[in-house]
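Appendix B, record 7
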Amino acid sequence: MAAPTEEINSILVQQISNFGSAVETREVGSVVQVGDGIARVYGLGNVGALELVEFTKQHVMGIALNLEEESVGVMVVGPYTDIEEGDEVRRTGRIASVPVGPELIGRVVNPLGEPLDGKGPLPSSMPTRPVEVIAPRVVLRSPVNTPVQTGIKAVDAMIPIGRGQRELIIGDRQTGKTAVALDTIINQRGGDLICIYVAVGQKASSIAEVVNILEQEGAMEHTIVVAVSAQDPAPLWYLAPFAGCAMGEYFMWEGKDALIVYDDLSKHAWAYRQISLLLRRPAGREAYPGDVFYLHSRLLERAAKLSDEYGSGSLTALPIIETQANDVSAYIPTNVISITDGQIYLEPDLFYAGVRPALNVGISVSRVGSSAQTRAMKQVAAKMKLELAAFRELAAFAQFASDLDRTTRAQLERGLRSQEVLKQPQFEPFSLAKEVTIIYALTNGYLDDVELDKVRTWENEFHRFMETAHPEIGETIMKDKTLSDETINALKTAIDEFKQQVVL
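Structure tokens (predicted):
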């Protein structure tokens, strides 16, 4: 009987000597309370701010926002209706991030980088960037001096936008804010500017319409759309602008130029207010939390023009803010106005009067000024903004006057013609050559004898004439970006020739 016992002993000794236990530690917590996209979790003592956590049963991700003594306030990014009290929550050790790279161009994705366009999954090998990073420091930046050509005559002539600038588009609902942004994106066809359109809390049908327009105009070839519809939970609304910004920053640090449109930051602020109130953060003015200014400043400060040592890339931001009943002095509009480098103010009264884009020249401003304009545009449009602002004020007084002196009448007539020339149909951006030639004709008095109701027809015929009879003038302007004496003389001759031929 001794042999089997020895055999058993040797087997046991062998097993003990070979025994090795792989110890795996995981920090898990449990849901204490859940509702409206916010979960309060107990037991995640070492979780970091903005760290991703996973609700293991539902495979839904969340982002830790409130780090309190007893619990952690988690923003659920995804469907939260199946999450129940007592469910397990696990730390991932990763900061909230999104996939970035050229593979996103032409795609429609949600703020987590998941495709919504039915064109198949994104490559799994794509790099990622944190959604929240500190904005580039002053020493990394260079002055804004390269224009973003919007193709909108009124903007390029009077409120120029530069690469690396933050220009606010502000106005009441249905005044053409999105149209200005879309025209700018469409005008980048064949250029080197990569565009990102972030739709926050819009109707799904409106987002589909925007994507459809961009596809029809051939603009999706250089555009990424980050979409969150009105039916999505508030955490996704909150995340969308930051996710889009991270995608744009990738191109900026690669030495390329990118443009991002946030449509719109009013809804973003609403979502942040909702999340903050659910997290029991103290409410301030208009029930917004105290850090709502910091929410938008840390987002918009990430737009920059990098210096040559860092690749000279740029990220230009066009945030959109919706006002209520023309109230530019409300909380969120004033916040964003103070953060940005100027604003394009669209006025309902002008819009309904048929002046589209409905630009209020008096309130609209670009704090970068003419340094973000091409020299050719600077030469022809220098006096235009001042003249048009003066005309609007003069027109308001002139309606009460019975007789006007010759100078005042001439100023009013020129202003009315300027207003007509600056009208522009939607989704028809103009090339630099077209803008420069028509503004030159306007500011040098060539339209003063054209009847007001025939100005638009005169302009259309003039562009057709220039393209067929004198295409070399347009080509020279596009190539040189300036008006030399020879070009000006050729342009004068061409306009005189056109005026002799045209019969309206």
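Remarks on this record: The mean pLDDT is 93. The two ends are 123 Å apart (CA to CA).
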